[in-house]
Amino acid sequence: MNKPLAGIKVVELSTFVAGPVSARLLSDLGAEVIKIERPEGDTWRLTGVSYIPDRFCEDENPIFDIYNAGKKHIALNLKDPAGMEVLHRLLAEADVFITNTRPKALKRLGLSYEDIKDKYPSLIYAILLGYGENGPEADKPAFDTSAFWAKSGFLRDLALKQENYTPVQPPYSMGDTITGYMLLAQICAALYRKKETGLGDYVRAGLYHTAIFTMGTMAIYTQPPFGYTGYPTDRESRADPSGEYQCGDGEWVFLSGYSAAMLSRLYTLLGREDILEDPRFDTPEHRLANAYAYIGELQKAFKTQPAAHWLARAEEMDLPMIRMGHFSDIATDEQAWANGYLEHVEFRSGNVDVMPRSPIEMDSVGELVTVPAPSAGADSAEILKKLGYTDAQLEQMQASGAVRID
Predict the structure, then answer these.
(1) Alpha helices by DSSP H, 97-173
(2) What are 170-200's pLDDT values in tens digits?
(3) Predicted confidence band at 276 (pLDDT cuts at 50, 70, 90)?
């Protein structure tokens, strides 16, 4: 099968998640991706093992593999001139260079965009940034928990306002993944332009910038000119009937959407058609003025029956209501399995784990199967020989520490 990006060569010099996400998906689309790691390996390898250290190990590291499957792995010491020479040989053949190395470190290595753009004019230079290239925080270390979730307001303002208020705990890797998608989209656009012009490009995606756009609705309507300053808030103060409700069995359901037609069906679902005529709740303005009482009436109605009752009735009435799940529910979710969103992956340890499948869905790509990533230097010898290095040179470079060969 001729995948869309067959023949494209990508060199990845990135760690943790955001850069590796983009590179992994480019691989899924058919590109050849060579991941450069330090001789001791990407720090994310150790992070992955640390999640469940009595189970995860070098031979079973799904938290690393989900972002690094499908790549070839070479381990170089870029502080050694011989290791740096290998990188430049790879860049000379590459279409795309992906990095999330901090700009100051890239400058010290002579690998900033300004350093190499004239040497490789057809190269697409794609960089993941934290807080952007300019401003007082440009050089701060950045993770998705800080630059995406914490700075954007999500963690403080989405927590419920209550006596024992505490900010929301950030989900791991999600901000990185979203930002990786953004970089991927721009790289694909740059590849199209390169096909037409032969020219490379300078592509940036930042955690903070992506967070601002992702939280765009919130960033707009919480501005002072619009008068909404209600965050953090509690459920009962929001007069919007869409949201979460606890049912009689303690389970939670979530109702999405908001329209006059939906309101009527919701009241019918609950057996509370009287709410339509209640002068406290008959207009949006009245519902807002009496928000606590309004949401209280809806919540009281939901508490009269278990979640299964409301979900079955909502399906009959075509209301957008769903059971609120847990992270742990995903691995056994019938809908996810029915669509191939999950897969069983066998690891070198002999264990078989459930993993999310690549989100790429294209007829020209076909079904994607995750193969666990090898060790950091597993493909070093193969890559170096393709670049013209001899066995004697490989031995010398390994002995000097310029390269790790497994």
Answers:
(1) 103-109, 113-116, 154-157
(2) 999 999 999 999 999 999 999 999 999 999 9
(3) confident
pLDDT tens string 342-398: 999 999 999 999 999 999 999 999 999 999 999 999 999 999 999 999 999 999 999
- Please name the residue that has the structure tokens 């250290």: 53
Judge whether residue 26 has pLDDT over 80: yes
- CATH among 3.40.50.10540, 3.90.70.10, 3.40.50.2300, 3.20.190.10 for 9-214+376-404: 3.40.50.10540
- Topology of domain 235-327 in CATH is formyl-coa transferase, domain 3 (3.30.1540)
Alpha carbon 253 to chain centroid, angstroms: 25
- Structure-token pair, residue 242: 């869409």
Choice among 144, 176, 201, 353 that is catalytic: 176
Vertex 36: Cα angle to 65 and 16 (nearest 5): 45
Q: Is 139 a catalytic residue?
A: no
**35 in Cβ contact with 377 (< 8 Å):** no
Alpha helices by DSSP H, 290-386:
291-302, 307-316, 334-338, 380-386
CATH 3.40.50.10540 intervals, the chain: 9-214+376-404
Q: Where are the beta strands (DSSP E) in 46-176?
A: 72-76, 96-99, 124-129
